[in-house]
Amino acid sequence: MLVMKFGGTSVGSSERIKALVKLVVSEQNKIVVLSAMAGTTNSLVEICNSLYNKETEKANQQINSLEEKYFQEIQKLYTTNENRERGKELIKSHFDYLRSFTQDMFTLFEERAVLAQGELISTAMFHFYLKEININSILLPALNFMRIDENDEPDYISIKENLNKELEKYPNQKLFITQGYICRNAFGEIDNLKRGGSDYTASIIGGVLKAKEIQIWTDIDGMHNNDPRIVEGTKPIAKLSFDEAAELAYFGAKILHPQSVFPAQQNHVPVRLKNTMQPEAEGTIISDHSDGTGIKAIAAKDDITAIKIKSGRMLLAYGFLRKVFEVFEIYKTSIDMITTSEVAVSLTIDNNKNIAEITQELEKFGQVEIDENLTIICIVGDLVAESKGLALTIFDALKNIPVRMISYGGSTHNISVLIKTENKKEALNALHKKLF
Ligand code: ASP
Ligand code: MG
Question: Candidates 3.40.1160.10, 3.40.50.150, 3.30.1360.120, 3.40.50.10540; correct CATH number of 2-218?
Answer without folding.
Answer: 3.40.1160.10
